[in-house]
Amino acid sequence: MWQQHLDKLTLAAVLLLAALLLALQLGDVKSWAAIDWLDILGEGIVLAVALSWLTLNLLNRPAGRVTDWLYYGSLLLSCSFALDLLDEFLRYPAHVRTMSWLESVPAPLGMLALTYGLMGWHQEQRQINRQLRGRERFLRDHRLLDPLTQLYGLDYLYAVLNRELALHQQQRLPLSILMLDIDQFAAFNRQHGTAAGDNYLISLAELLSSQMRESDVICRYAGDRFVAVLVHTEQAAAEIIALHLQQQLQRLTAAGQTLHCSVACIQATQTQATAVLKQAELALRASKLRGARPVYQPGHGNL
């Protein structure tokens, strides 16, 4: 997340360095006996807290208007508190009022900016909570469950994916899609029967539910195809999840055979669920072509 805020980090470092250089240029270092260490402790803690606000804001929030207000408020407070701390080490001439103004003015401006940013943050949270309540209502609607695997079905997938895409566009949070397909599953069903195929699908659904994260939404997309919506997940993290999942799938057997599953993951770049799923299907097709597995031969376990 912090990569989005390199310009803000640079500005903060430049301003704090400029404040330090200006203070050293205008002031004289106090004698050791004149330093009040208790004041230094209190003002140092206040500065550390302001800097932690600034840092946590840039590490955990996406770029946007609310983040900007929180950042500038924290930055002004940090500059004011930094100069206030330097005042404990330096003595300025009586006729120099520059440092006094620089210590006093940024703090109230920073409090105003920070308050405005917190009000925007509160509005964001109210909107997110409304979306989460809507998601919870979907979770309680059992009609959206696939009767065989007890995973969510296609209707729920479209509803959740469209909601997450809207949140992704608004908050600029990463969103990845993982798609899994059982290779040559129709041939397996012809040899061993649909009952064996259904048992494998049930076992596969249980494995997906146990191996994926609590925040991931797992749905049955088609007969032998599954989709997981990976919220707040970058492409690199999604690929690690896919690799882990493929390793676990090797332990899953049906009729004494290990069926092969193709897995693909993408970073959502579209705004509609239909387009994103189409993008995932293309990635899955490319993954199958790269794998180029042999045609199913009954009894040889080479799916």
UniProtKB/TrEMBL annotation:
Catalysed reaction, written as an equation: 2 GTP = 3',3'-c-di-GMP + 2 diphosphate
Transmembrane segments: 37-57, 69-86, 98-121
EC code: 2.7.7.65
Name listed for the protein in its UniProt record: diguanylate cyclase
Sorted UniProt keywords: Membrane, Transmembrane, Transmembrane helix
Domain GGDEF: 173-303
Biological process (GO), any one: negative regulation of bacterial-type flagellum-dependent cell motility
Molecular function as annotated in GO: diguanylate cyclase activity
PROSITE patterns linked: GGDEF
SUPFAM superfamilies for the chain: Nucleotide cyclase
Keyword Transmembrane helix in record: yes
GO CC terms in record: plasma membrane
